[in-house]
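Key idea: predict the complex, not the pieces.
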Amino acid sequence: MNAMTERMIQLGLLVVIVGGWQLGVEAGVIDVFFFPAPFDIMKQIVAWIIDPGFYRHVSITLTETVLGYVIGTALGVAAGVWLGLSRGAYRILDPFIKALNAIPRVVLAPIFVLWLGLGLWSKVALSVTLVFFITFFNAMQGVREVNPVVLANARILGAKRSSLLTHVYFPAAASWILSSLRTSVGFAVVGAIIGEYLGASAGLGYLIAQAEGNFDAVGVFAGIMILAMFVLIIDRILDIAEARLIKWSPHSTESRAT
Amino acid sequence: MALAVVKSATTMMSPDKPRPMVSIDSVTMSFGTFIAVQNVNLTVADGEFLAIVGPTGCGKSTILNAIAGLLKPASGTVSIDGAPVHGVQNNIGYLFQQDALLPWKTALENVELGPMFKGTGANERREQSMKWLAKVGLKGFEQRYPHQLSGGQRKRVQMAQALITGPKVILMDEPFSALDIHTRHLMQNELLALWQEERRAVVMITHDLEEAIALGDRVVVLAAGPCSHVIDSFPVDLARPRDVSEIKLDPRFMDLYRNIWSSLRGEVEKSYERHD
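Result:
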């Protein structure tokens, strides 16, 4: 099957689902209170996109996501590389890490609001707790899975500990870390949105929460669509970054299993 | 007959007695309670090509790793050029059986590693590396990543990488066993040519007796493991330069092969009995 046919089938599926949905609404089979017409959702999205005030919400959510993402990733990589290299430290800290990771992060949201207020940072904190562990476990795994022969070779060639980090451990961990970055970007958004949803005065999560408060299903669905696009765009940016960073890998485009 | 002390200097071809480059004195290597090799004594002279053969699982590689300083002997001492080995050695070149190149670096960057870690300036090490890559026949492949090279080409890069630092001793752990037979012969000849240019002490581990005789100045036979030890040592007095694929037809080669095989055979059979 060539790419063209696949695209046509995908398009066909979309038309059938959305068209069927729209027809169902018009025939009165589907209750618009629960499932608003796709056409109305589109109208709402367009209305938001042409409204300058809407971008304030987008930029706030984006800032929270990016901050949570960057901080969580940086901490995760640092901790992961450290514990990957030091078995002793890992054995001591392992139960604590497991316990912390076992906490459902959503319940932390009210605590972060209590500590950090209703503003930006409580959402960033929630994002960080979600992102950290994914990156952490991947970075640790990446460091541990360094081929011992490659490591021995580098040491014989004269690599000291710092050169081993920059030339062997970090690049070896990079593909693991990058694959975790794609998973964690979704979590960064989730963290930001849940934070906003539970208490905020702006942001996409706040928009959805507000629409929900008014039983405005159109607003909720439109918000969800916007969020999906939001994540897709970030994902695409990561795609490009990954292709640039890992050009040495034989399957840099398909090796992102997580 | 538990062990045999092997005198090496006498087997050298050069008239004046060269100094010993690697000395292994009553070395025992063990992992927990498992003793891989026991009481091994070996001396490799400067410029000597020593081939060690033995059945699989006899602990051949642990001896190399002890020389490289990657493993610490349970007892006994290893010294290179008179200096005892403590920790990983940087004055050796190690050719591994597996791929040891950094996959995220190009061929050129991989060859540059040694000089870079030793602090050679960027321009100088680039120049050296280009020269070495050309020497191993990889001119024009400098910017390829390891996954873009064939198995033989990767071996060549590894050879350049190991030799560029001008090591005192070259260690080889079945370096060509993963290659197909034609590539293997080609690589063996190239290795001999490179070695002939600038003779270093070489310790090569192999399970391929033909390879050992064709390349080495001396072939040492190890007993089947565990508690492996040196059981025999055969000088190889075939003229150099040698052609690996032709030398096998030489009647002296066949005599040597018969002699060494009669010694090795018993050990190989023992090792099969233990493993099956």
